[in-house]
Amino acid sequence: MVMIFIMAKKRIKLSDQLRHAIETCGQPRYRIAKATGISEATLSRFMSGNRGLPMKTLDTLADYLDLKIIAPRRMDK
């Protein structure tokens, strides 16, 4: 399972973290597209930053990549 951490001080956009997970998963985009039913064109536009993804597509990618979002607990003063 790959974990996506949401950092309190240095915020990295979730979309950038997802792009990183896709780039480092070891699978070519063709295989990801075929396995998830997401078109290669959609993945390509997302990876280049030209397009966002709908929630259903994000869920599909997260399931395929076995991603989990971890948010740190807020420390109230």
Break the fold down into its secondary structure elements and pairings.
Layout: E1 2-5, H1 14-24, H2 29-36, H3 40-47, H4 55-65, E2 67-70
Parallel strand pairs: 1-2
User: Count of helical segments?
Assistant: 4
Low-confidence stretches: none
H-E string:
EHHHHE
Oligomer description: single chain
Shape: globular
Query: What is the radius of gyration?
Result: 14 Å
Termini, distance in Å? 33 Å
In the CATH hierarchy, what is the class? Mainly Alpha
Q: How many distinct domains?
A: 1
What does this structure look like?
By secondary structure, this protein is mostly helical. It has one domain: 434 Repressor (Amino-terminal Domain) (Orthogonal Bundle), CATH 1.10.260. It has 4 helices and 2 strands. It has helices at residues 14-24, 29-36, 40-47, 55-65, and strands spanning 2-5, 67-70. A two-stranded parallel ribbon has the order 1-2. The longest helix has 11 residues, at 14-24. The chain is globular, with a radius of gyration of 14 Å. The mean pLDDT is 85.
